[in-house]
Each structure stands twice: as structure tokens, then as C-alpha cells.
């Protein structure tokens, strides 16, 4: 397995500066993850603030019940035993519960959490456990109901689970029927090429969905199969047992809601003032809490001192909302700006593993933490990978392509190669022809106008038609050239569809089971063996 570092295009200028130019954004964050002093300072803070977080025993009891159902590995129970002990720290990261785990970035986040916990434990010489926060309280079904694989025909195939009619509640509370599971699994089975690993994959998926009534439970079981032996603790943010323990935290969020909102507003102003775009909605009247009513997850806002939703379906005074919380804690959930506060209130978070979009919106929360007596943890960028193989590498070498060429200049490089095959620079030649035609024809049109005014209009119309015909000939020439070099262009296509499907980084599109089908379940261990230390640099891994 060959591993090299190379940059990957960023979707967020703010996150890119956090990772590569921290001095530009240091006032928006708590600490630089590269500084040793930041880690030692964080440890000291966690030791001193032990009493401000949830009781460890109560939390572990809840997590043990959940992991017993979905992630029952001895290594996980060992991690939970450690978490129950004062002084144990945690590396935490999370994601929504996608279909068949969703895209590769979910797996890379879990891998980062495991690797970072191991490395921190060795460095600090004290227990550090990995925790994956499943965002089961999220209700955006369209974000989690699909995944992609590549077909032998080099097509990016989408596997989608349609939602059953009903309210838009948390994904962990959204029922998935046996028929829905079967349809999605059959679709995946039909798309995966036959291999020695395929029967085991299908058996695992069938086993996971057979025991799951929703996407989150199946997601947990699959993550447990992939990372449970590494001691990864799973937590579902929509777990009713956990919600009961969170009542005091929600109470503080309600009591200090105005102050929290002010910090978010001020931070949003600082971020946009530096020229960055906001990655999360910050509204002046936002309460940044959800309330589940009639199965629907309603975002609360403040009006005239009360808490209501946009359509006015529910309306509570602060006292009424607190009473609802005491009576029905399962009806409450966080949004993206209060989830960091909840995570910090529950766990001794040494650092939190985040993707670039998350790094961007966490900047909004920095000054919200002290309102609840908390402190922003270290933000550790998720590790990033692109998987390739010997065939793709061979094709890239043959065409003289670098990873950056494929990422930023693919179409240009492909067309240049095509032109070079016949020593005919198609686009420049046709553009030259168009210019020459216009330079000769346009003066003629003007002269014709002196004969009869209607000839000017006729001449302009004729010019457009001739230019259209030149463009048509250019397009047919390109098609003929492509037909002539069809086999080679298929190799170009394989390069691009493998590395940047749909024009996006591979890790944001393809499903892990496409790669397990090809390389076996052990390839995650192989990556951990090749990447023994954490790095924020994007890595290209050539699989064997």
C-alpha cells in the first residue's frame, strides 16, 4: 500500500484557513490543534471542570445499554469501563446516520477518532477513548437516504430509500419497513460486481437491517462491525434514555437562551466581517432548539418572550417550556449550534473531530461555551483520503496526469491530449475560423444596409446561422475524434470517475462497501497500519 500526500480542493475558505493559516482566524477559535500547549491546557481544563459535566456513571450506564444492543464488543465495554473512571478523556466526532453508512467520509471520521484517541493516549499517558456521536436527532431524510457505487460501465449509480409518508421527525424515530430495506439491499446487490467478499457483505447488511427498524440502528450496527473491535463507543443523540440525562443541560440552554443567541449573532458578524460565508443559519430570533410535535421536528424561535415555531403550531412561555422538558424530554433536541454545547456537557472532550463544513460553523459557537460554564474543545480536522489502484495510476502515468491535473484541469488536459493525437488544435482552429468569418462578413452586412435597410436584419440572421453551423461542425469533429480514440478516452473516464465522481472528491460520494467488495474488510486495518500517525494533510492511497 503506497501512501502519498497531496492537497484536495476545499469547500470552505474558513476551514481551509483554520487548517493551513491559523493566524488569520485564531480569534474565531479556541486553540490551534498543532500546538502542544493547547493539548496540555485542554487536559488541565478538563481535570479542573470535572464536576461541571454529566455524572460519568449515569452516562456510561446509558451508553452501555445502547452499545450492548448495537455494538457489543468486549473492546467497547473496555472503553466504557475506562470512560466511567475520573481522568479518562474522550476524542469525539459524529455524523448523520446514512444508508449503508453513507459516503466514505463517515468511515474516515470514525477512523480519525480511533487513531487520534490512540495517539493522544500514548502522548498523554492516560486513558483516552474514542466516541462516535450518531446524529440521529437530525430530520433531513434527503441527506441520509442514499449512497453511491461505481458500476463496471463507469457510471455513478445511486441507491436511494424513499421515505414513507408521514411527519418529518428525527431519523432515529423514522420507521423503515422490511420492504424498504429489501428494495435498497437488492439494488446494492445488483450493482456490486461478484467477488469473494460479496457474500459476506450481503450477509452483514442483511443481518444489520433485519434487526433494525430505522436507519440509525442499522448505521450503528455497521459502524460496530467495522470499528467495534477498536473500542469505538457509539452514542445516538436521539436515544430516549440519554435525553432524560440531558434535562439539566436543556434547562440551562432555555434559561440562558437570549445570551446564547447574542453570542451567535456577534460571532456571525465577526465571521462575515472577515469575508467568510456562514455555514449555519443565525437568526436574531432563533432559539436554536427543536421541539417534536405530532412527529414533526419544529425549530423554535422567540416571539414576544415566548418560544414558538415559524408556523405558530406551538407556543410556550419559558416556564411552560421548562415544564414540557421535565415531562417530555424526548420531545427536545439540539440544532447545529447547540449540539456542540450538549456534547461538551456530557463528555470529557479532549478534542472533537470535524469535517470542513463543521469546522466553519463551530466558529459561531466559540463564545457560547462560557455562557454555560464550558470551553470550546480542540477542533481536529477529519483525516482525508483518496483511494486509487494500480490500473488508475498506470493510466495517469501514461497520459502524464498528476492528481492536481485531474482535480483542477481534467477537461482541458483531456481535450489537449485529443487534439495532439491528430495534430489538430480543434478549439483554437474553429475559434480562428469564427473570427475570420466575422471580420469579413460584418463589414459586408453594414454595406448591404446602405442598399436596403431590411438587408441588415437578413444579414445578421444569416450570420447567426452560419456561426451555428461552424459550431455544429466543431462538435461533430470532436465526436469523430472521440470515436476514433474511444478505448483511450474510456481510460480517461475511469481516472476521473474513480477519483472525482460527479466532479466531487471521492470520499464525499462512494460507499465503503464498494471498496470492501474489492479489497476485503481488512483494508481499514491496512490504512491504519499505513497511517500510524494523525495528519491533516490529504492522502492518496494506492490499494493493492
| Spans where pLDDT lies below 50 across 5 or more residues | none
First CA to last CA: what distance?
6 Å
Q: Name the beta content range.
A: 5-15%
- Which structural class do you get from the secondary structure elements? alpha/beta
Number of helices: 23
Q: What's the Cα radius of gyration?
A: 28 Å
Largest sheet: 5 strands, parallel
Spatial order of strands in the largest sheet: 6-3-2-12-13
Roughly how much helix do the residues carry, as a percent range? 40-55%
Describe the structure.
This protein has 544 residues and is an alpha/beta fold. Helix content is 52%, strand content 14%. The chain has 23 helices and 15 strands. Strands 6-3-2-12-13 form a 5-stranded parallel beta sheet. A 5-stranded antiparallel beta sheet has the order 10-9-8-7-11. Strands 1-15-14 form a 3-stranded mixed beta sheet. Helix 3 packs antiparallel against helix 4 and helix 8 crosses helix 9. The mean pLDDT is 92.
Essential attributes:
544 residues; alpha/beta
Brief description of this entry?
The protein is of the alpha/beta class and 544 residues long. It has helices spanning 13-20, 36-48, 56-70, 74-83, 104-124, 141-144, 178-191, 198-210, 215-227, 240-245, 247-255, 257-273, 318-327, 339-346, 356-362, 390-399, 403-408, 410-421, 426-451, 453-484, 486-499, 512-519, 523-530; strands at residues 2-5, 89-95, 128-134, 146-150, 156-160, 233-236, 286-293, 296-303, 306-309, 315-316, 332-334, 349-354, 378-381, 385-389, 539-543.
Amino acid at each position: 500500500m503506497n501512501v502519498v500526500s497531496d492537497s484536495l480542493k476545499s469547500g470552505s475558505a474558513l476551514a481551509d484557513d483554520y487548517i493551513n493559516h491559523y493566524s488569520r482566524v485564531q480569534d474565531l477559535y479556541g486553540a490551534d490543534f498543532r500546538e502542544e500547549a493547547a493539548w496540555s491546557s485542554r487536559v488541565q481544563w478538563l481535570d479542573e471542570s470535572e464536576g461541571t459535566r454529566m455524572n460519568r456513571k449515569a452516562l456510561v450506564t446509558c451508553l452501555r445499554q445502547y452499545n450492548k444492543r448495537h455494538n457489543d464488543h468486549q473492546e467497547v465495554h473496555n472503553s466504557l469501563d475506562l470512560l466511567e473512571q475520573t481522568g479518562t478523556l474522550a476524542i469525539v466526532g459524529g455524523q448523520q446516520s446514512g444508508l449503508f453508512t453513507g459516503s466514505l467520509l463517515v468511515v474516515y471520521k470514525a477512523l480519525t477518532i480511533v487513531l487520534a484517541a490512540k495517539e493522544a493516549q500514548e502522548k498523554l499517558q492516560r486513558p483516552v477513548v474514542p466516541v462516535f456521536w450518531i446524529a440521529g436527532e437530525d430530520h433531513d431524510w434527503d441527506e441520509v437516504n442514499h449512497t453511491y457505487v461505481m458500476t463496471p460501465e463507469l457510471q455513478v449509480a445511486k441507491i436511494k430509500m424513499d421515505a414513507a409518508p408521514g411527519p418529518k421527525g428525527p431519523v432515529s424515530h423514522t420507521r423503515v419497513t422490511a420492504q424498504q430495506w429489501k428494495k435498497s439491499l437488492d439494488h446494492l446487490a445488483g450493482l456490486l460486481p461478484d467477488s469473494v467478499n460479496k457474500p459476506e457483505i450481503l450477509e452483514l447488511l442483511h443481518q444489520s437491517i433485519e434487526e433494525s427498524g430505522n436507519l440509525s440502528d442499522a448505521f450503528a450496527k455497521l459502524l460496530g462491525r467495522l470499528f467495534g473491535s477498536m473500542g469505538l463507543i457509539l452514542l445516538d443523540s436521539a436515544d430516549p434514555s440519554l435525553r432524560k440525562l440531558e434535562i439539566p443541560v436543556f434547562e440551562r440552554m432555555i434559561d440562558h437562551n437570549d445570551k446564547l443567541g447574542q453570542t451567535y449573532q456577534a460571532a456571525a458578524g465577526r465571521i462575515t466581517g472577515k469575508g467568510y460565508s456562514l455555514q449555519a443559519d443565525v437568526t436574531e430570533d432563533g432559539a436554536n432548539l427543536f421541539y417534536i410535535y405530532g412527529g414533526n421536528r419544529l425549530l423554535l424561535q422567540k416571539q414576544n418572550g415566548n418560544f414558538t415555531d415559524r408556523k405558530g403550531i406551538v407556543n410556550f412561555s419559558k416556564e411552560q417550556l421548562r415544564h414540557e422538558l421535565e415531562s417530555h424530554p424526548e420531545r427536545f433536541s439540539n440544532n447545529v449550534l447547540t449540539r456542540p454545547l450538549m456534547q461538551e456537557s456530557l463528555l470529557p472532550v479532549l478534542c472533537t473531530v470535524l469535517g470542513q463544513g463543521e469546522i466553519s460553523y463551530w466558529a459561531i459557537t466559540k463564545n457560547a461555551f462560557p455562557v454555560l460554564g464550558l470551553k470550546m474543545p480542540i477542533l481536529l480536522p477529519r483525516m482525508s483520503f483518496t483511494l486509487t489502484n494500480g490500473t488508475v495510476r498506470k493510466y495517469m502515468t501514461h497520459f502524464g496526469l498528476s492528481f492536481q491535473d485531474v482535480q483542477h484541469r481534467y477537461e482541458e488536459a483531456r481535450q489537449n491530449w485529443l487534439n495532439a493525437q491528430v495534430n489538430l488544435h480543434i478549439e483554437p482552429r474553429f475559434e480562428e475560423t469564427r473570427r475570420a468569418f466575422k471580420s469579413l462578413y460584418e463589414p459586408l452586412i453594414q454595406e448591404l444596409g446602405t442598399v436596403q435597410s431590411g438587408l441588415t436584419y437578413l444579414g445578421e440572421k444569416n450570420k447567426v446561422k452560419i456561426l451555428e453551423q461552424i459550431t455544429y461542425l466543431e462538435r461533430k469533429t470532436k465526436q469523430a475524434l472521440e470515436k476514433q480514440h474511444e478505448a483511450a478516452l474510456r481510460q480517461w473516464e475511469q481516472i476521473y470517475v474513480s477519483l472525482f465522481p460527479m466532479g466531487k472528491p471521492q470520499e464525499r460520494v462512494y460507499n465503503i462497501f464498494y471498496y470492501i467488495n474489492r479489497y476485503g474488510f481488512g483494508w481499514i486495518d491496512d490504512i491504519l497500519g499505513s497511517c500510524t500517525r494523525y495528519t491533516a494533510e490529504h492522502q492518496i492511497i494506492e490499494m493493492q
